[in-house]
Amino acid sequence: MTLLLSAFWPGLAGAAALGVFVGFLSGWPTGKTVPLGLLSLTVLLMLLAVFRVVPGAVGLWLEGAALMMPLYLAGCALGALGNRTTGTGR
Predict the structure, then answer these.
(1) What kind and span of H or E run contains 23?
(2) What value does the mean pLDDT of the chain take?
(3) Which of 18, 20, 29, 52 sits CB 3.0–4.6 Å from 75 for a disulfide?
(4) What keywords are assigned to this protein (predicted)?
(5) Secondary structure of residue 14 in the 3-state scheme
(6) Whole-angstrom Cα distance, residue 35 to residue 52?
(7) How remote is the C-alpha of 65 from its chain's centroid?
């Protein structure tokens, strides 16, 4: 895991920054369908990565996505919170 973090730190930082930007622009979702879908996708990616279902280079990409997706979603939530507190009302 430390090797993945040291190799993917630019992608992790980029995912968090992109999440903050997208979350600020889009705001909080109005329905529950999109957040539940994203949560289930994240859990599925993490389970596939933990149980090493996909071998080789594609498995490495899957593990990278499983690391970046939660940071992206946390950045989206943080950006949406910033959108709500500034009063832009999106």
Answers:
(1) helix 2-26
(2) 89
(3) 20
(4) Membrane, Transmembrane, Transmembrane helix
(5) helix
(6) 26
(7) 8
How many Å apart are CA 89 and CA 55, to the nearest integer? Answer: 45
- Domain carrying residue 75: 30-85
Q: How many domains in the chain?
A: 1
19 within domain boundaries: no
Give the Cα separation of 19 and 74 in Å (integer): 7
Could you tell me how many residues make up the chain? 90
Residue 12 domain flag: no
Query: Is residue 25 included in any domain, yes or no?
Result: no
Of residues 41, 4, 22, the one with CA closest to residue 80: 22
- One-character DSSP codes across 37-48: HHHHHHHHHHHH
Q: Is 10 left (phi over 0), alpha (psi -120 to 50) or beta?
A: alpha
Which is higher by pLDDT, 7 or 17?
Answer: 17
In the numeric block, which tokens belong to residue 6? Answer: 């040291």
* pLDDT tens readout for residues 54-78: 999 999 899 889 989 999 999 999 9
